[in-house]
Amino acid sequence: MVVREKDVCWEYAEKLDGNKVKCKFCLRVLNGGISRLKHHLSRLPSKGVNPCSKVRDDVTDKVRIILASKEDGKEVIPTKKRKQPEPRSPVSNSITTNRSLVTLETVSPIAKIFPNITQTGPSHVSDQENAERSIALFFFENKLDFSIARSSSYQLMIDSVAKCGNGFKGPSFEALKTNWLEMIKSEVSLQSKEIEKEWTTTGCTIIVETWTDNKSRALINFLISSPSSTFFHKSVDASSYFKNTKFLADLFDSVIQDFGPENIVQIILDNTLNCTSIVNHILQTYGTIFVSPCALQCLNAILKEFSKIDWVNRCILQAQVISKFIYNHSSLLDMMKKFTVSEEIIKTGITKYVSHFLSLQSILKQRSRLKHMFNSPEFTNNPAYANKPQSMTCIGILDDNEFWRAVEECVADR
């Protein structure tokens, strides 16, 4: 089952078996999961976790803010001694009351750690830099994932605010959860109805995705895709029925009926579902609908099987010996970047096995530069590396033609 972690710090770690994680900066393996990783990246002396020697300063600052926020919880300082009602989720049923909201003054985690940081910033910086700084603080204080900045609506929001000029005030909490939520829902509903009209001509695909949330619930997401757009249909908590064929068959029947069997061309299934029984049910009940497995999961399974072959596995392990030796020594890593013109030899893919083969491809690309580095006076005259067992092992691998033939075979275009 595909697991999607909510914590933004997972972008700095690789999840291993059990409760272990590997730091992507220093490659150290830690016991204790994401919590230990945060203390490792924060470089604060706590809980017996060794600080990371290679983490970037900006990452350390971000993690410290997250830790401070977690310790403080939702601490607020009320201006009046009156109990503040807890806000409801925008998607829950809400009851409108005439009670006025109590004004609260919140102290942000970033202000507690760096009290000299202000929203407006130094007076000598440009308006552009001040604006970027305010946006950055908004991300940090609210622990937002940096990938949000890649959203198509991110720049659209900034452009719209800029057109309003000085004095623009953003929508309030109440306006967002009531007026704007309902208006956007209506717009999306109208847009989906326009897309549905073309299904009689183009048909549509149902994409089924399973994952586990941070409460260990087994969720099944249904998305609808057509040439114009892909949009979310619904999510079902199937924790109690995940292996129940009858429940899953009824669930798929209801989704198919939502859009009409005559409009559905194919269903793409997640491999974690009870595929055989579901596929048979769909094919027998709906003769015109194709069922396909998830291509990404199929490719990952293929790479996983490739990795089990002795000579491929040996090739991957030898490449990891070189990369671990380099990345475990900050000065050696700096030297490598000098020779490779800042190119990395460890590449991160969407899965562990994809990462293995992308890294092999990168090492092959840097073959001559790596050999040059290990034979350069800068390396051989350095007592920290020269004639060390690990150095000799790496040099032996780099000089091994069989290793390079194996790498070429692993990443060859066919």
From TrEMBL:
UniProt xrefs under Pfam families: DUF659 (PF04937), zf-BED (PF02892)
Ranges for region Disordered: 76-95
InterPro entries: DUF659, RNaseH-like_sf, Znf_BED
Record-annotated BED-type domain positions: 4-59
Tagged with keyword Zinc: yes
GO molecular function, one term: zinc ion binding
Keywords: Metal-binding, Zinc, Zinc-finger
Keyword DNA-binding tagged: no
PANTHER family (UniProt xref): HAT TRANSPOSON SUPERFAMILY, OSJNBA0013A04.12 PROTEIN
Protein name: BED-type domain-containing protein
Lineage of origin: Eukaryota, Viridiplantae, Streptophyta, Embryophyta, Tracheophyta
